[in-house]
Please model this.
Amino acid sequence: MSGASNMVDTTGGPLTRDDLIGYLEQGCKPPEQWRIGTEHEKFGYHLDDLRPLEYDGPRGIRAMLEGLQRFGWDPVIEKGNVIALSSAEGGSVTLEPGGQFELSGAPLETLHQTCAEVNEHLRQVKEVAHEIGAGFLGLGFNPKWTRADTPVMPKGRYGIMRRYMPTKGDHGLDMMLRSCTVQVNLDFASEADMVKKFRASLALQPIVTAMFANSPFVEGKPSGYMSYRSFVWTDTDPDRCGMLPFVFDDGFGFEAYAEHALNVPMYFVYRDGKYIDAAGQSFRDFMAGKLPAYPGHTPTMNDWVDHLTTLFPEVRMKRFLEMRGADGGPWGRLCALPAVWVGLLYDDTALDAAWDLAKGWSIDQRETLRRETPRTGLTGEIEGLNVLDLAREVVKIADAGLKARGRHGAISDDETEYLLPLKQIVEDGRSPAQALLDAYESRWGGSVDPVFTEQAY
Model:
């Protein structure tokens, strides 16, 4: 789950195809062991001039990572640089390529715990940031900086990705350097349960994208999109992104996903603290000892785990399912994202209702929803589907699912309180991005600079 180590014990001979499938199957666990792992990214900037935080220097990302260690975080070092933090509870703080600061939360039982974790993390970040004159912004795409403005973090895998990405799409570097998301990682009980959850969440992901759309600006101006972050993913790398039509095929399961992952070109092999550039090469060749970048060697299970992290579909499977369709945003929506998916997927009646909502859609409807909702947000009428009506139904189903879970908090009987931001959004009928655009045209006077205050943590 989120925050857990990627290290996997391996014994015996070379990996087989069954080993790869078996790794995914090991994610099955009974409902009482299901957990919630929430991740969110945010942009760090200098308060005085709104420039991005560079890595080095007294007011940089390294200073943030060093300052947070006072709260019990342990540093993760790569080539002498602090590149992440870890905790004994299973959480971590990591860096995206452009310095986006990410909390990968511990696997927790309830949304109350998840929201408390987010609260405490943001409190720690705010304390350290205040000391160095920094702020952090909750938005899906950076509203001001160009690619050239954005510093690159000193992590070896990012250098490989930066070289390879432009060969596959026009916006891979934008995804790496200028986007932020919030996502949740959820468990499954069996292969059949995984399939149902994968299909329902993948089909409904564009509806969630519309509800969370919060990135209308690029380089200081409106982009024409409600979620420019989501649009960027449509032109990043067709080999590893998208809506995965095969998930809806008869017979889909762990084997089919493993086959898909084997067909996705590699990025790297990690050995002895170094990244070997294998971009575009085949994991199948690696298993045969014929990887051009590392000839004569075969993969460990850790290599398979690493490879699975380089797939970027709208829903991704590891030993859990990752919901990847939402823009970063302000504090309340960081808790609302796991709330809507836990409500939809962790109660059987709600899951049935969620799948009933989407199961009749064609491939064309799903693909068109994915393509158009980044532009239209909640206002779209797409392939005969009214996005706002669907969003309202999604929130209604999630609300019933959370009530059925009945997980008590300190002052509440269930977890439905975390859906309140989404209830307001669907009642208003507008994606959050529209409010930002209205402010830009009126009280912001055609400047995006006020967003660094109004969407700051």
About this structure: The radius of gyration is 21 Å. Residues 392 and 426 are 6 Å apart (CA to CA). Confidence is low (pLDDT under 50) at residues 2-11.
